[in-house]
């Protein structure tokens, strides 16, 4: 990452990306399929309709739950 990168907390671990990256792109950078996850953004469940307009900032906190066949895996 360039010097302009920011650090997020994702499921309790640090993750670096560029500031103002839309949430779906952050998920893709993490290797996740945005259609198969639920996201809590800074302590609140973020409805999918707001994902594209949600741009991450330094120290944002994400909790991501991935849906897998047969159940849920986080």
UniProtKB/TrEMBL annotation:
Domain of life: Bacteria
CDD domains per UniProt: Ubl_ThiS
Pfam families per record: ThiS
InterPro entries: Beta-grasp_dom_sf (IPR012675), Mopterin_synth/thiamin_S_b (IPR016155), Thi_S (IPR010035), ThiS/MoaD-like (IPR003749)
UniProt-recorded name of the protein: Thiamine biosynthesis protein ThiS
Gene designation: thiS
């Amino acid at each position: 990452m360039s010097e302009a990168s920011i650090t997020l907390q994702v499921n309790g671990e640090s993750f670096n990306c560029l500031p103002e990256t839309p949430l779906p792109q952050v998920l893709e950078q993490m290797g996740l399929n945005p259609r198969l996850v639920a996201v809590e953004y800074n302590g609140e469940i973020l409805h999918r309709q707001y994902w594209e307009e949600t741009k991450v900032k330094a120290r944002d906190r994400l909790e991501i739950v991935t849906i897998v066949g047969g159940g849920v895996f986080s």
